[in-house]
Amino acid sequence: MQFILTPNEMRLADRTAIETYKIPGELLMENAGRSVADFTNDIITQNKIKNPKILILCGNGNNGGDGFATARHLANSYSVRIAWIGSELKMSPETYQNFEIANQMEIPMIHLENEDDIEKYNFNADFILDALIGVGGTEDLKGLAPIILKKVNNTRAIKIAVDIPTGLNSETGFAHPDAFIADYAITMYALKTGMLLNDGIELCGKRVIANLGSPEKIISEIAHIAFLEDADVPFLLPNRKRISTKFDYGRVVILAGSKHYPGAAALAANSAIKIGAGLVYLLSPVIHPAVLPEIIPTQLPSDNDGFIDLQSKDYIFEAIKKANVLAIGPGIGDKNSTLKLISELINELPESLPLIIDADALKAIDNQSVLRKNIILTPHTGEFSRITGIDRETISKNANILAQEWADKLNCTILLKHVPSIITDGDYSFWNLGGNPGMATAGSGDVLTGIIAGLIAQGLSPLEAASLGAFIHSKAGDYYSNLYSQETLTSSMLIYALDIILHSLKS
Fold it and tell me: What is the CA angle 359-306-491, rounded to 5?
C-alpha cells in the first residue's frame, strides 16, 4: 500500500520529522538532493547518454534548496549549470547553505532577474531539472517563472520535476498553461494528490517516490488517502481453508435486469461467483442464457413493460434472509414503479445487511437520503451530479473533496467512477490508479458491482471490498488491453481475465 499526501499533510510530515524525530532540515534537503541526483544518474546510465549537459532551475524556497543540493551531487560527474530566480534574502538557512556550497564549488550559476535575462539565456540542455517552486506553488504562476517555463517546455531536453512540476497545484491538479511538462517527477515522501488529478495526470510523466530517510510511520499516521498495489491483494483476499464449504464464502443476492437489459444481471452475477463467492442468487424478470450454471436464478414477476413488478417485494425479502450482501441496480431500468420498489427496499432492509446500489438504482438516492456505512454507492460523475445537485464540471475538478464530503453527509461508502476512481467512507479514501479507456464499455460497471458483492460476501468491509474490487477490476482491464487492445475489450472479457489476474496476484 502506498500513501498519497495533500500539501498540508506534506508540511506536517516535514514538521514531524524535524520536531518529533529530530531529523535536521539540512539532512532532509540533503537526502532529497541525493535522491534526485541518483535518479538522474540512473536515467543517464540506462540511456547511455555521453557527456550530458544538465540545467537545474532553482527558486529561493526549499524546493530550490533541493535543486542546489542536486547540482552539487551531479557536478562531480557531469556538466551542470544552475539558473535561479528570487532573492537570497528569502532563502531558508538550509537553502542558503546549499546555494553557498554550489557557489564555492564554482558551479556555473546565473541569477535571472528580468525578462531580458531570460530572453538572452541559453536553456538548451540534455536534462532540465525543475526546482523552482515545489508543493507550495499553485496554478496561479506570476513573475518570471511562467516565462522561463514556456521557453523550457519548447526544448527537447529530458525534463525532471523535483517534487512536483512548477505551475501545478499539488492539491487540486489544476495547472498554469505554461506549467512544467515533466517526463519524470521525483516526489518526496509520497505522491501528492494533485499529481493524480486533472492536469497533474499529464504533467508529471513517470512518478517516482524519493525516500528522505525519515520513519515510514510518519506518512502512514498522517495520510488519509492511499492506493493499493499488487502485494496488498493476498493480504486482503480471505484465505480459503482446506476444510471448508461453499457456505464459508458467503451468499450474494443480486437484484438486477429487465426485459430490455438482461445481460447486465448476468454480468453482475457471473463476476460475483468468479471472484470467489460461495453462493450467488440472481433475482431478475429475465434470466439471460449467458448466466453461468453455478448461479441460482429466480425469475421475478414482471410488469407489462418487462421491468421488475412491485409484487416482487416478497420474493426479494425471502431471498435475502440468509444473504451476506445484496447488490441492486444493473439493468433494472428507471421506470417509476421500479424505483419506488427500490426506495422501499432501501428503507426496509435489515440494517446489518451490506448493500451495493448501482446503475439505475442510484436514482432512488438523492441529497437528502439517510443511509449507513455498509451501503456502497457506485456513481459515475453524471449520477453523482444528480444525487448531489452539483454540476459535472465542478465534480470533475473537485472529485476527491466532494466524494469525501458526500460520503460523510450521506453516511455511506462511495465509489466515484472518476480518473482516478475514488473510494471513500468519508474518513479514509483509496484511489484506484489503474484502468484504461477501453473499460468505458457497456457492462463494465455491472462486472465491478458483482466483484464488490463477492468480496463482501467473503468477509471484507464495504470500504475494503470496494477498493479491492476496483483494483482487481482495473487490473483485468489493463491485462486484456495490454494483451490485445482497448478497442476490443468487452465486459465479458473482464470476467474472463479475472482467472489470470487472481492467479498472478495470489502467487
Answer: 40
Q: What pLDDT, on the 0 to 100 scale, is given for residue 507?
A: 75
Task: Count CB neighbours of 505 within 10 A.
Answer: 17
Running DSSP on this structure, what letter comes out for residue 54? E
By the 8 A CB rule, do 408 and 377 touch? no
Cα Dmax for the chain? 86
Q: What's the DSSP call for residue 241? A: -
Whether the CB-CB separation of 105 and 75 falls below 8 Å is answered with yes
Using alpha carbons, list the distances in angstroms from residue 378 to 81, 240, 446: 51, 28, 10
Three cell numbers written together for 160: 525532471
pLDDT along the chain (507 residues), means of 10: 94 94 95 97 94 97 97 96 96 96 97 96 97 93 96 97 97 96 96 96 96 92 96 91 91 97 98 97 97 97 93 93 97 95 94 97 96 97 98 94 97 97 97 96 97 98 98 97 96 95 88
DSSP of 344-359, one letter per residue? HHHHHS-TTS-EEE-G
Which of 179, 151, 147, 145 has its CA nearest to residue 60? 145
pLDDT at 352: 96
Q: Which CATH architecture has domain 2-223?
A: 3-Layer(aba) Sandwich (3.40)
Residue with cell 418487462: 306
d(Cα 473, Cα 436) in Å, to the nearest integer?
Answer: 11
Q: What does CATH list as the number for 251-506?
A: 3.40.1190.20
Residue 78's CB: how many other CB atoms inside 10 A? 19
Q: Which residue has the cell 525516500?
A: 211
What's the rounded Cα separation, in Å, for the pair 194 and 181? 14
Cis peptide leading into residue 420 (ω within 30°): yes
- Helices then strands, each counted (H, E), the chain: 18, 19
Domain ranges of the chain: 2-223, 251-506
